[in-house]
Structure formats: C-alpha cells, structure tokens
Amino acid sequence: MDYSIRAANVEDCKDIARMILELSEHEKVSEQVKVTQRDLEQDGFSKNPFFHGIVAEVPEQHKTKDGHTKIGYALYYYSYSSWSGRAVYMEDLYVMPEFRGKGIGKALMSKVAQLGLAAGCNQLNFTVLDWNKQSLDFYFSQGSVDITASMGYHCMRCEGEALEHLAQP
After folding, report:
1. Contact at 8 Å (CB) between 68 and 7?
2. Per the CB 3.0–4.6 Å rule, which of 15, 93, 127, 155 could disulfide with 70?
3. Nearest-CA neighbor of 80 among 127, 139, 120, 128?
C-alpha cells in the first residue's frame, strides 16, 4: 500500500474532524465529541498550539469510496513528568478501518515517537480502552507497557461544573 506520513496543516482540519468523529463512533462515545473543525484550526495552528498532528495520506488512485485521501492521523502534545522529564502524549491514533493492517498505524505511532525523541522526550504516553483488544495487542507488540496495573494509576478527569467549582478561590 502506497501512503505517506506528513505534518498536519490547517487545511487538514476538515479531514481530522471527520476522523475524530469516526474514532468516537468506534469507541462508542460520539455524543462526547464537542471539538469542531474551527476549534482544531485555532487550537492546533495558532502561534502557541495546544496540539500537533500528523496525517496519513494515500494517492488519488487509493482514495476511499467517499473520495478521501487522508486516511489516518495522530494528535500529540508535549508534557512533562516530574520524575523523568520531557514526555510526549499521543492523544489520538486512528486509521480508517479499510486501511488497517497495512502498517499505517505503526508508521503514525513511529513518527510520534521520532518527533518525541527529537524533542528530548524519554517516554510516549497514551491511553487505550480496556475492551479494545486489537489495539492493546498492537501497543504491546510495539513494546508498550500497561502502567495501570504495575503502577496503580487511574486516569482522572475534572470537567464542566466540577471544573468551574474547583477553579473558585
């Protein structure tokens, strides 16, 4: 399969938004997606971006039945571990179903790892749903470890009214 991996640009936001919805449907949480194409444009391509992205693209002759040539993406951002220093967090890794099993997901993840190492990061962090055995198996095959059990961490979130309340002095 002929494909390329490249840095995302603002013109890719429409396709990234589409694939975010596809990913959310796969994860059975589509009602939780609030991010729009405009949000992606502002948050990823402003002077101080909140995230970075890469896209997987196929040539026109391999486009989808709906005419898409952008068939996968990864969103990531840099973070910091008070124990080990610089880190990169992969927020999303997605490849359209008909293009899975062709090395595209590995290429996207590998590129995020390369970018992290180039920035001086010493770890790549991400989450995966506990029921997504195919993804878990893939991540394990890449040398990833599940720190949920070994370190006892839980992924926590504070949002909405709870976040507003927490922000009160």
Report:
1. no
2. 15
3. 120
Residue 137, SS3 per DSSP:
helix
Sequence-distant (6+) residues with CB within 8 A of 95 are: 56, 71, 72, 104, 105, 108
Residue whose tokens read 């640009």: 9
Tens of pLDDT, residues 86-109: 999 999 999 999 999 999 999 999
* Closest CA relative to residue 76, chosen from 47, 111, 103: 111
Q: Which residues are catalytic?
A: 139
pTM over 0.85: yes
Spatial CA neighbour of 54 closest among 110, 123, 96: 110
Distance from C-alpha of 56 to C-alpha of 70, rounded to nearest angstrom: 6
Containing H/E element for 125? strand 124-125
Q: What is the pLDDT of residues 139-149, one digit of tens each?
A: 999 999 999 87
CB atoms within 10 A of CB 161: 8
pLDDT in tens, 21-36: 999 998 889 999 999 9
Assess contact for 52 and 45: CB atoms under 8 A.
Answer: no
Is residue 3 helix, strand or coil?
Answer: coil
